[in-house]
Specification:
Length: about 260
């Protein structure tokens, strides 16, 4: 909820200020209308989030957003992640999932990122463009909101595919502009201000369109674009605080 600049201004006081603020918000949003599957909490509604203050978005307890709650249920109901022995590479590990997956006894959990200090303790350095792991090392790869930061995204997708074992699967979410068929990318846009305007955030280097699944297929994946929210009623979509129509990109690698 706070900007990076605000966090930096608070310095060492940030964790204290943040926990006080979240305590206040848990009281402000006390109620029973919505349910967060990530932390098992109920609230009157989820709190607003983002520059446009989207309603019913942010969990005051575990900080999950719409996409985290959707994925949490998807992983539980549609995959074997929570039950089968699996070696899992988690790139840019979301805090919401990190602690849960790290404690799962069926999982050999490998949380990584090129900037590990931005993630929970235990996250290791890993460069997706020069991966320090042999091909076919992982049963599952979770790589959410990563490719839009990488200039050489095709190479990163290919490497991700190579790291997956035959018969393995992955989740590869990115922000998608559904009004555009083709991904918007312009290498002459280089300043932070221009990138924020064109691609949504100053660190992003493109805005994917509906051709995103084809890019994953080009890397080798078999892709199922699964609109999981369609399996829920409007009332349930509200109760879970989903973003209706937010599809899950479920990617598989054929068995040998
Ligand atoms: Zn929560």
């Amino acid at each position: 909820m706070l900007s990076t600049k605000q966090k930096e201004a608070l310095g060492p006081l940030f964790p204290i200020a943040d926990s006080v603020r979240r305590f206040y918000l848990r009281i402000k949003y006390a109620g029973n209308n919505v349910y967060c599957p990530c932390c098992g909490s109920r609230f009157k509604s989820f709190a607003p989030f983002g520059a446009k203050r989207r309603n019913n978005a942010w969990c005051p307890k575990c900080q999950s957003l719409e996409r985290h709650r959707l994925l949490w249920l998807y992983l539980e109901k549609k995959t074997d992640l929570y039950t089968t022995p699996l070696k899992v590479l988690h790139i840019a590990p979301e805090t919401t999932f990190f602690h849960f997956l790290n404690n799962k006894t069926n999982i050999e959990y490998c949380p990584v990122d090129i900037y590990p200090n931005l993630y929970p303790d235990g996250t290791k350095y890993f460069n997706l463009l020069e991966p320090d792991a042999p091909d076919a090392s992982f049963d599952v790869i979770i790589c959410n909101h990563v490719f839009q930061y990488i200039e050489e995204d095709e190479r990163a997708m290919r490497n991700t595919y190579n790291l997956l074992k035959p018969g393995g699967w992955g989740i590869m979410q990115v922000p998608i502009d559904k009004s555009k068929q083709e991904t918007y990318e312009d290498k002459t846009i280089t300043t932070e201000a221009e990138r924020e305007k064109a691609f949504g955030l100053k660190e992003h280097v493109r805005f994917y369109g509906l051709d995103y699944a084809d890019k994953l297929r080009k890397a080798g994946f078999t892709v199922k674009v699964d609109d999981y929210t369609a399996e829920f009623s409007d009332a349930e979509n509200y109760q879970y605080g989903f973003w209706k129509g937010d599809a899950v990109y479920y990617c598989t690698k054929p068995p040998r």
